[in-house]
Amino acid sequence: MQNSQPCRLQCRWSAAPERHEQILSIILGYWQANALGLATKLGLADLLAEGPLQVEELAGRTGANAGALFRMLRALESIGIFTQTDRRTFANTPVSELLRNDSPDSQAAGVVHQLCKGNGSYEAWNEFEHTIMTGESAINKIYGCDFFEFLQSNPQANEAMNRAMRSISTAITPAVTDAYDWGKFQEIVDVGGGIGTQIVSILNAFPLTKGVVFDLPHVVAEAIPHERLKATGGSFFEWAPSGADAYLLRFILHDWSDENAAAILRAVRCSMKPSATLILAEWLIPEGPEHDLSKWTDLHMMVLFQGARERTRTELSRLLTTAGFESEEAVPTGSSVTLLVAKPTEQGLGTRGSSRQTVMNRPAIVNDR
Ligand SMILES: C[S@@+](CC[C@H](N)C(=O)[O-])C[C@H]1O[C@@H](n2cnc3c(N)ncnc32)[C@H](O)[C@@H]1O
User: Fold this and answer.
1) pTM of the predicted model as reported, rounded to 2 decimal places
2) Count of domains in the chain?
3) Which residue, by CA, sits nearest to atom 3 of ligand 1?
4) How far apart (Å, rounded) are the C-alpha atoms in residues 328 and 320?
5) Is 254 part of the annotated catalytic residue set?
6) CB-based contact 76:36 (threshold 8 Å)
């Protein structure tokens, strides 16, 4: 009787209809995400950079319990993250190599930012129910301020966020650079450009083009040094550097409600010369029921930012029209992101900026390289 139990269970699982397997795999995904987050936070892939180590050695260096750590690593090994070269001795795999902080295409910062305590995302998803029941951002409930204000007052979370944007967009950045002839512009402003990951990639590919990374002062203070890049601090609700040929907004509008997104576009519009080009880089929600990353990042936006959303192409085009732009074309990239190219029109111009209280409302040049 005792022996027949596992067999019956096994038979039941193997005979499980696909829809049951689907539910189980989602639950498993949650457990796996927790193990991945902790392994990355503990820096296990970095510790294995020089070669395999016994689990007792890894436990000693991380302060973890050796028995528990072994079980976590054994489970991660079963999904291709770490491998045992000998009994209880673990080494990196091609996948876990991506968790090393010194790897050129490291995903470590993105994993820690998304899955580990203290950076906002983990806390926000724990309050997912609040967001769904009220429509309010979980961050506002937890911290009493918006996500960017939370980052400004938490230097460690701010650094994690900036590094995460760089790591999350490892595949997207070169795809955006390759998808468009940026070289036709003499100067490009990357509005809300973070530490300049995308604009630096563009400048490296187009040696005659100059760039400006425009973001909040505490963010551009960390901008990547580049001889053709100027780092300018300020709030895109108030202004943007004027006189450039193109204005790129990558992953900006999805952080904001329609009202605030339109206010950002209007402020940028006011700084643009009539011949300049606006280029949005966003995840577009498809109109149909198919699976798409954007439908999930939409939930992520909803827990993090009040009123934030991913949009369909139609919704973005409508927003552009409201703010005094005319959509010209949608350019696919070799990644999940689409570029929407637009030109300013004479109509639809409102007053500069919005009444929104921003964390930063006075223009400031932080770094003029
Ligand atoms: C989702 S991140 C995108 C960063 C960058 N464009 C990228 O794709 O990696 C949004 C950016 O908007 C910036 N931001 C938020 N509020 C801002 C404001 N009022 N003025 C300028 N930048 C702001 C943030 O600091 C952050 O770098």
Assistant:
1) 0.86
2) 3
3) 251
4) 11
5) yes
6) yes
Q: Cα(263)–Cα(201) distance, rounded to whole angstroms?
A: 28
Within a domain: 102:
no
> How far, in Å, CA of 57 to CA of 61, rounded?
6
Dihedral (CA of 70, 75, 79, 85) sign = positive
SS3 2: coil
Domain co-membership, 116 together with 91: no
Length of the chain: 369
How do beta strands 364-367 and 338-344 pair?
unpaired
Q: How far is CA 196 from the centre of its chain?
A: 14
State what percent of residues in the chain have pLDDT above 90. Answer: 83
For the chain, what percent of residues have pLDDT higher than 70? 89
Listed range (10-19, 80-89, 222-231, 244-253) with the worst mean pLDDT: 10-19
Q: Whose CA is nearest to atom 1 of ligand 1?
A: 251
- Answer with the one of 164, 187, 203 that is the final residue of a domain: 164
Atom of ligand 1 nearest to the CA of 194: 27
Nearest CA to 168 among 177, 179, 160? 160
56: left (phi over 0), alpha (psi -120 to 50) or beta: alpha
- 173 with 321, same domain? yes
What domain range includes position 148? 108-164
* Residue type (1 letter), 250: R
In three-state secondary structure terms, 90 is strand
- Please tell me the distance from the alpha carbon of residue 208 to that of residue 226, in angstroms, as a whole number: 13
- Find where tokens 């990353």 sit: 293
Residue 24 host element (H or E): helix 18-41
Query: Distance from the CA of 237 to the center of ligand 1, in angstroms?
Result: 11
